[in-house]
Fold these 2 entries.
Entry 1:
Amino acid sequence: MNNWRILLTSASLLALTSAASAAELNIYAWSGEVPQEIVDDFSKETGITVTFDTYDSNETMMAKLSAGASGYDLIEPSQYTVQVLAKQGLLQELDHAKIPNIGNLGAPFKEVSYDPGQKWSVPYIWGTTGFAYNEDCVKTPPTSWKALWDPQYEGRIYMLDNMLAAYIAGLQVNGFDAGTTKPEEIEKATQSLIEQKKVLGGYNSTNYGDLLASGEACVVQGWNGSIAQVTATNPKVKYVIPDEGGSMWIDGFAIPTSAKNVEEAYKFIDYIMRPEVAAKAANLSKSATVVDKAKAMLPKDVAENAAIYPPEDKLMKADFILDVGDATKLYQDGWTKVKTAQ
Amino acid sequence: MIAARRGNLLTLALLAPSLLSAILLLVIPILIVIAFSFAEQDTYGGAKFGFTLASYQELFQAIYLPIFLNSLQLAAVSTLVCLLVGYPIAYFIALRAGRYAGLLLALLLIPFWIDFIVRMSAWMVLLGRNGTMNSALVGLGFIEQPVRMIGTYPAVLVGMLYAFLPTTVLPIHAALNGLDKRLLEAADDLGATPLQSFWRVTFPLSLPGVMAAILFVFVPAMGVYAIPVLLGGGKSIILGNLIVQLFLDFRNMPLGAAVSVVLLAISSVIIVGYMRVLRSVEEARA
């Protein structure tokens, strides 16, 4: 009798402790790229409690990670960020056996230059950096970065508050490759970005879509996903990949070395690689999926949206920014000069 | 002797909680920041502890000087604007509002129960091109087309004024509230005009409040971050933004820490110097 009681008590205690340490997952991802619905669906299916934080620049995420234990189990770095984090030893090598759905990746994403063999990251969505305008105040459709320097929109031009993104425009408008490491090209771009401040309304990488939709801004530099989300409700907002090229990026999932809930992180990666989940995520975030089978499931307005899936020839011209190594310092000094210029 | 020692122990015991939290939450974090400011920086954002003055050397380069000057200038102009607007409000509440004084003070403070960022976002709506302010001005015929307000220096000043108004009004109100009204009556009896009695009686007596208000506005204004970003479009960078940029965008913790230490040093010097002046003013009066 007594023994039974002890057994029962310990069993209930065990149940209690396991309930208290119920599976958790802490995700840190780009704002607007992992829809809340996907996170909720995942929690419902697996019983894993998800804490979900967002950032609007790779650098912010990197700063938190390199400052020490960040408490995050899953992060969503862009291509060059994967390189930097891997070099710093901040990422875990991925065990592909735990991601059976990794085979769903479309052909171009199976072998990416920044992470051969998907050692550190699994691509999730891809997109472009370009600019957008509001038809109410921009009458002739612009095709060049020069629109972001056009004095007729003085005070109504916004640039991404992001060093590398700003330099894509600053370098390409001068005919240079984005992601160059040549000091004289970076210097020239810096001058152009300083020159631009006269006509600028501001720098913004959070709600620039709203600024454009409300008419506060006429032309904004932006990422296609955020713009496509705005275009869905305000068709006057148009996205442009500039003639100079713009850039293409890939955001993927990676597991930091400091992650505590590694199994749960793998589960999430595998979950989001399912074609139907990838399709839902792409549809809600208005982004281009890396899962081929998912693309076929997308509604027409997303699958045939040139802002999301740009024509091949545009993509061929777009730059793909990789880690610039020691040239980072040149960009940073230039960016500080841009920011302090009156 | 024993009683005295027991008294000391009791004092220590009573002080322990606040002493402990001050050490844990104030002294140690500052020491960590100082330690980081002497650390070495590698290209990939790692900080290696050691002792190098590299960050301070880098900081005293020409490109950072304008940021320091910008911050001092913004703090000074904001303080001035806050005083110009805050003083009359404090004066009215303390000397003219009568039984509504309590209500007015409460009205001044209630909005501050709402989160700072939410209030600043509200200003973004108010000052937007299609915002309340523009619609009102167009509706009243003052302007024909909506004008740009967001992303301008005056918008930043509006934000600063809004953020720091209570910290301006309260100390001035406290100084004026204790004013002996008989002094004003005496001035009146002796033939002073209202302006003279204000300038020679009321204002000098409110000076301690004004001085406190200046300190309460100027020092935190040096470190603001969100207002220039949200209302100023992030175009002119000041110390608060520089620290964020160095820590988060450039992952240069040693340099970010060095800027923080210099900001702390500047504020401390200002506070200490200011307290001296304040004391001599009060001594001169006594």
Entry 2:
Amino acid sequence: MEKEYLIKLEKVNELRLEDAERENVLAFFEKRAEDLASLEEVETSNITRMVHVMPITAGIREDVAIKKFERDDLQKGAPETTDGYWQVPRLVE
Amino acid sequence: MKTFINKTDSKLTNLVAFDDMILTTELPTTAGSKMLDGYVSLFEAEVVNKLKKAGYNLAGKVNVGEFNVDLMGETSYFGAVTDESGNLVGAISEVMKDTDIVATIAVDVNGAQRRAVMATDLVYLKPTYGTVSRFGIIPTACSGESVCVIARNASDLEKILNVIAGHDDKDGTSIDDSRMNSEKASAKAIEKVAFLKDMFAISEKDACEAKKALESVGVATADIDSGVLSKAGSAWNILMSAELTNNVSRYDGVKFGYRSSNYTNIDELYTNSRTEAFGELLKTAILYGSEVLSTNNYDKMYDKSLRVRRVISEAMDSIFAEYDAIALPVASKKVFTAKDVADNAYLAYEESRFTAISTIVGLPTIVKCGYQIIGRAFAENALLDLLRKIEKEGA
């Protein structure tokens, strides 16, 4: 993987690494290529994906609105609020 | 160095501790991350509710590595827990030392808790996936993470399991009680255990001690090759990272958690908040997960890992047709030092080869003295019976 591509990945994930960190991450990605090579040894062309490890019946709850929390409570952990709204920087100038 | 992130009144009795991935209303839940430092949930996890209703009291919140994906808590924002010699000890074992705490309830994502107890007298149980509700657990890798219990003996593990097990409508992956009960009723006692000889060959832990302990309680042992089970670590690394990337995308500095003070627009708010709050291992895992899920790699990495998971599950079924359980070491080393993780910050991704074997297929596992024993699905009671016999023999 090239450094430029890694920077693109950082952007997609809203992260920014220092150059020294980038070197570590690139080395990590190289090491993980061994994981991939190891998996390629397993024949899986006629195998179905296993998404759930136990057979489950997805539970569908009644479509009923339940008010569990007050807005003030929900905003207690917010970094910044104004008049009951989550505050973010201006999006449109 | 912190063992408890927050602690309640220690004069209470019937104490249980929770690792800092499990939501509680009376104490903050941080996931070992600066991102959630001081975060207090509005609701409690189902395991907390159940234990409180059964008369247990919250002792406090136990330090964890950031989102529980590391080796033994070394990536916690609150610091790694080490002894005087610089060995990583894991906050759980320190918290349980010389206290009245009956058990610690934790979330096993990548085996950190198993490694934390491997050099101690504590015992560990990870029940079958879906047996214990994951409602109210900070999600990391939902398809394999499980609530686990750490205690001093089989009897305490069983007591806690009996309280926390059971169907929960609030968790979409929770197993129906009727199925759980019928599977448990038909579970077979453990009489024959297969030892994964190639896993012991790459570990400092010798198989002899475990074989002797099992044979002393009348259990037959035999060596087998791990075969495709040796691919579990590689597949889990991919699945865990992909799921982690999605699960931590919600932390953006807007609705809750850490917000950087250094921003002039919304993009800078997101990027600086996440960059300043997440540690290096987590950032690396996020980037790797994102790469796994990218258009170019989805089929050859993510989809492939899901297929390999099926192959591993079928291989397990074949082993369980002949044996009642599988034994292997918890890790490559008996003890990990702070230097080990300083030299290789990604050691957890290498050590997952031992712990991912049961995680990736959600099978019940017990740990004692650095050995793991994996049972058939819903064979928790058989595993606990075996542990009780070993304890009785003093083996």
